[in-house]
Records
---
Amino acid sequence: MIQAVSAIIDGKPRQGSGATIAITDPATEATLCEFADAGAALVDEAAQAARRAFADGRWRSLPVERRQDLLRRIAARIEDAADELAAIETANTGIPLTQAKQRHVARAGYNFRFFADYIGQTSGTLYDQAPAHLTLVRRQPVGVAGLIAPWNAPVALGAMKLAAAIAFGNSCVIKPSEQAPLGVQRLVELLHEAGLPDGVVNLVNGLGHVTGDALVRHADVDLVSFTGGTTTGRVIQSVAGERLKPTTMELGGKSANIIFDSADFERALDASLLGIFTNNGQQCLAGSRILVQRSIADRFVPAFLERTRRIRIGAPTESATELGPVASARQRDRVLDYAAIAVADGGELLTGGRRGADLPRGYYVEPTVVLAHDPGMRVCQDEIFGPFATLLLFDDPDDAFRIANGTSFGLVSYVWTEDLHLALRAQELLESGVVWINTPMMRELRAPFGGWKDSGVGAEGGAACEAFYTRQKTISIARHPLALAALGRPR
Ligand code: NDP
């Protein structure tokens, strides 16, 4: 297992002198390693290193083919190190190893390949209508990006930010969650092993309100890409806003998964379980509110419960495990508290709501299902972020759309129906940045992924990242020598 460092600056590991932070394996509660919070001094060094790398053009001025080659080499290096990277991610987060390898690490490699291809096809705009001028609009990298990532999918989400930021020629400083920095730290090492010039990608590990805050405030950081909770997002956006730094905010969700009676029943059932219980339930895009049409509730609810009770909960390193531990004791207690809150608010606890059975150590929570009778209940409104499904029944499509839209969030929606016209109506009316129809989660990187309402500002994806990580420049060129008014010339 790798040892956490406080920072990687100009390609070199660094130790800081801030508060000691312990990293825990959520499956065993054992301390994996400790490191010192990077703090403002190392953030300053990291940001300056990124600025130097940007200013001297060691990366952004390379021919695009060389940058593409390197991004592809990085993807290959990630794929070669897939077992190692997945093992680190699993040990640090509790994500089942099979999911860490097949989804997170595979996606991390794909992110670099995707942006390698993307940057080979970008183009500017030409306006040639004016008789005396040609006007070009081109895009240039912004400078130094501050990238802040959460603990629930550090490698996949961190790789998305890194790939997008550097593909367009920027340098960056990334700060993973202090709770789960090991996978991102190894990822940054792999980038260097693949040949990325020093200083282009720098890492700082540490506390959000110390190291993260210093990064957002730093004068050399030109823009901030943040994925995390809505409350933190508000803080970061206001700090960045004072300095007029552009931000993207990928925030929380309480997404509706709507099962109409016209759905393909078995597929909707399979996908509903995947939607809430993969990644140990800790996904921004979890289908955590499962809205079931009343006419099929007698069939759907028992089937969902039976399958939930059969989910294999256990050590995330076991290949048979479907649900591992949640990421921390705090997260476990939060999920369990919501089982009690559901009952106090008049809901029915149908299964779960307890620590994982037969597992004396580790932050295990039984997969939990609650039936809510009022969409205003806290378990229908708050992002719980764990293996906790809230079921709600509805009578007709209008009822479903009203409930689905009745939260402060708007990240994604899932719709299950074989009725084409109903599906089209649903995508029209649902207030979320993404609508998935008859499919579980599907990240199409060419398309924007971003939330509405409290789920975010801006988006990630091909063109969305190009817009964020570059800035426009308009160049007007005279087509021929211009006849200019001759101010001050003797007449
Ligand atoms: P947090 O908002 O607590 O933290 C996210 C990151 O921000 C961490 O690296 C954290 O550091 C850092 N941070 C905290 N405070 C500050 C600050 N004042 N200034 C700068 N950085 C700061 O989120 P979690 O890590 O708890 O992640 C879970 C949340 O992420 C959920 O709400 C989930 O929905 C959301 N999420 C959204 C996704 C999306 O694409 N929309 C995808 C995945 C998750 P530290 O951990 O060290 O405090």
---
Amino acid sequence: MSGFQSPRGLRDLLEPLASAHGWATDRAWAAADAAGYARIELPIAEESALFERAVGGTSDIVSKELYRLEPRGDDAVTLALRPEATAGAVRAYIQHGMRSQPQPVRLATVAQLFRYDRPQKGRYRQFTQFDIEAIGDSGPGIDLEVIELGAAYLRDLGLTDVQVHLNSVGCTTCRPAYVETLRAHFTPVVQELSEVDQSRLATNPLRLLDSKEPATVKRAASAPAITDHLCADCTAHHASVTAGLATIGVAVVPAPRLVRGLDYYTRTAWEYLLPGEQGQQGALGGGGRYDGLVELLGGTPTPGIGFAIGIDRVVLALEARGLLPTAAAGPAIVVAGIEPESVAERVAIAGQLRAAGVSARADVSTRKIGKQLEGAVRDGALAVIIVEPDGHLTLRDLVKASQAEPAERGGVIAAALQLVKNEG
Ligand code: HAM
């Protein structure tokens, strides 16, 4: 046995989880297609400077969790495995001149991401997100469209109790004054804060609202709410989004202390949460507006909004609720044989069945026919085709436990296809 294990936080997905991931991913693409979001596949690594600028140099994601790759050969650029998809999507929007298309440009992707974090249930170093971005529209209508799309995706998977925790994090006009109010609120207790939170107080006080440190959590409970400090435009936008979500029937929980761990957000910010889940596991996804990001990355000032839903957490939630879809079924037909020499013939017949649209596998072993039949039953096959020594085929119905007389190949294959149609 090999002494190798999968690296910490990087998992093998076995059945039924592998099928569940595939299923949730297929449903994500289908939800995006149905809403007119164009698919985009982004590279798995980008210049690390892209993430530093977009997500923010002081964010945990960049300062602690980025996997940087050593430059190779003539290439002096440091790349990083992507920790999120928004920066890459906005980079692509600028690079491919998508501003000349009708706005907003609606993009969707399902992406594998990497963050160096302490692994625990629901938090992995490699994980998958369903990511939606709508770039080029500043009105509250697109906020409603995007928030509803994520909520409907989760609901349609069976997570019907999902809640949208909604906040506005303001804009460059109103946020600086709020940040100072927040700093003033925490400064009297600075000595009680952890070292990390003392440095957050100095560099980015908003992050304190997201801290898990007991002293900070205690003080944050009485912190002023940003929604009381928004400028007139942000207040109007937030009111419009809140009212619109009520009209659509999306369950919203006002969350005036919700801040997100990425620096690019402005105005609308939200999370999809499952009530009653432990720790991070209930945080299925999150998103927000990023009205300054296109410009920050070198493009013409253009607003944007999007969300990402963690597929790994969705699958965990489905599992906890007994809602996992059944794993892919075994083959409907197994092609067995009496003589070892018939192996090639068995493989050919199985291929012919698959070409006709029925799942099938050959038993390629030289085992006795009884063992081959046992294997077919274990696989849950509906029927077995047995290649007889004289080349005739026998069709055995495993569901009805009946067997036809040996016959010519064409007739038996037609009968097998009919059997799967009737019983499959
Ligand atoms: P985020 O909140 O960093 O946002 O991640 C969104 C979701 O990805 C989380 O709610 C969680 O379900 C999942 N997730 C994050 N980290 C992990 C992990 N280590 N293991 C498993 N799942 C994880 C973003 O990434 C933004 N780019 C979302 C966005 C798109 N904002 C605008 N557009």
